[in-house]
Design a protein that fits this description.
By secondary structure, the protein is an all-alpha fold. The chain has 20 helices and no strands. It is globular, with a radius of gyration of 23 Å.
Length: 521
């Protein structure tokens, strides 16, 4: 299977997910605005997402996929089914215990995540209630991550990439229909979003379990103590747990940074948590389409190449991924830095969202733009370590970058307020990606193929033309003043983005870059 074809499938389905995600955020923004209630929801939603990344697509996936791929390559599918059964059994028991603890400890978790919410006691209490309702979401999504790891290893990328749409549809229904209904019942309308999150988790797990069942790969989860003991004693399970140790620390470092930043934002102006969250949703558009798509495709294939001892293929796949990062992420970064306000205005400037909110989200989005290349590149570089069952090196780098990021916050927050929090993470991501790249090159795992110098110059020249066009488009139209003419504003943005894409790729072609080289993998 062509890597580009696989990445394109994941990217296209991720695009659908992000479009529905933007519709979701638009509805939430226009219905609830940016205030203490939306801050409460965003904090409550981050708590299960934080733990989900510990036990789901974070530490667990980083450990599970390489072990699964190695078992498939070396021992065959029958033995690998046992690995799947035992991993699912241990994970399910761990998630059951964690969910009970999380529901009981909701007040402490909300305080640890954002103690500044206590400025509005009502908001703090709402956050606690929603945390309790949404905490079981981590159990569903962590099992979804297990199912996705199996499907991706068997090169079935479509279902895992498509199922996030279900969460967005559930939350859209919650904001559009559930919130008004809750209001008529005398309930806080924003509680409807918590119900939408939980329903989305159930539906995603159901669809992926169905896909596994069709392939004959659905895990047999043991509910008896004897089965749990046998699963725990399996050498493959112990290997996953061994690799999860450093991976958990690595994920912890990333989310400790998020926790600190959320804590800082909760003490800034009301709405700061929401401004950053709305900017984060926009930033996730290119990072998911590019970085996540390539990471999903590359991880199992790198693990299989490493298990087969094919160093040349391993290095060539990394080179292909990095070139695609430069080709596509650099122009996206340029757009976020020089053209952020029209993007924010067209997507969020409706209903309860004010001109001030647009301005604040714009500043946060520019901070993300500075680090976009690094954020996407990490999704390609980190699997280069995980596929080699090395989870320690990325963790060491992440700890150092966490310290650097928080030192930057000390300097930048007094100057740029909430926007400093995205800027510091962006700068940290660039440092992180550079460090990972140097490490792979020093150990000989990655050897850059010829032509990088000319390739980078071609991209830079095309991006210079792109930046000039976008700066003109940014100032040529009164984007916020067109609020009452929403369709006109949407069409203007669509035309500008189409024109920007045409200018960039025409400039790339004129500079002599052959895009067919990306079809070879």
């Amino acid at each position: 299977m062509s890597l580009l074809k696989s990445a394109s499938i994941v990217s296209l389905l991720t695009l659908v997910s992000r479009i529905t995600g933007l519709v979701r955020e638009l509805l939430i923004a226009s219905t609830f605005g940016a205030n203490a209630m939306t801050d409460a929801f965003n904090v409550a939603f981050r708590i299960p997402n934080l733990f989900r990344r510990f036990f789901g697509e974070g530490a667990f996936s980083q450990a599970f996929v390489p072990v699964l791929a190695a078992s498939k390559a070396q021992h065959g599918e029958a033995a690998t089914q046992t690995v799947i059964n035992h991993a699912a059994t241990v994970l399910t028991w761990a998630l059951l215990v964690l969910s009970v603890i999380g529901v009981a400890a909701a007040p402490a978790l909300v305080w640890a995540m954002a103690s500044g919410l206590q400025q509005d006691p009502r908001g703090f209490e709402v956050a606690i209630v929603m945390t309790r309702w949404m905490f079981p979401y981590i159990a569903f999504m962590s099992l979804v991550a297990l199912a996705a790891g199996v499907l991706n290893t068997w090169k079935h990328f479509a279902v895992p990439a498509a199922t996030p749409v279900l969460l967005n549809l559930c939350m859209i229904a919650a904001a559009w229909l559930g919130a008004p209904w809750f209001k008529t019942l005398g309930l806080e309308p924003i509680y409807a979003l918590a119900g939408g999150v939980l329903l989305g988790g159930v539906l995603q797990l159901g669809v992926q379990w169905w896909a596994l069942k069709k392939l004959g790969l659905a895990p047999a989860i043991g509910l008896r103590w004897r089965v749990l003991r046998a699963a725990w004693a399996d050498p493959a399970t112990k290997n996953i747990l061994r690799l999860m140790g450093p991976a958990l620390l690595g994920v912890s470092v990333a989310h400790i940074s998020m926790l600190i930043n959320t804590q800082i934002a909760s003490h800034l102006a009301p709405g700061s948590v929401s401004w950053i969250t709305y900017a984060d949703r926009l930033m996730e558009f290119p990072t998911a389409m590019l970085g996540v798509a390539m990471g999903v495709v590359l991880m199992p294939q790198l693990a299989l190449a490493r298990a087969a001892g094919d160093k040349a293929k391993y290095s060539a796949m990394l080179d292909w991924g990095l070139r695609l990062v430069v080709l596509l992420a650099v122009p996206c970064a340029v757009a976020l830095i020089v053209f952020p306000m029209p993007l924010v205005a067209v997507l969020y400037h409706y209903g309860a969202m004010t001109d001030l909110d647009v301005q604040k989200i714009t500043y946060a989005l520019m901070g993300w733009g500075v680090g976009l290349i690094g954020i996407v590149a990490i999704k390609v570089l980190a699997p280069g370590y995980y596929a080699n069952q090395d989870t320690k090196t990325p963790v060491t780098i992440a700890v150092a970058v966490l310290i650097i990021t928080q030192l930057l916050n000390v300097v930048l927050v007094p100057v740029f307020a909430h926007a400093a929090l995205t800027l510091s993470i962006g700068i940290g991501a660039m440092i992180n990606a550079g460090w990972l790249l140097v490490g792979l090159m020093r150990r000989g795992s990655y050897k850059p193929e010829p032509g990088w110098g000319a390739f980078v110059l071609q991209v830079i020249a095309a991006c210079a033309l792109l930046a000039v066009f976008l700066m003109w488009a940014n100032s040529a139209f009164a984007w916020t003043q067109l609020r009452s003419e929403s369709f006109k504003r949407i069409w203007l943005l669509a035309l500008v983005l189409i024109g920007a894409g045409a200018i960039y790729f025409a400039a790339i072609w004129a500079a002599g870059l052959k895009l067919r080289q990306f079809l070879r993998r």
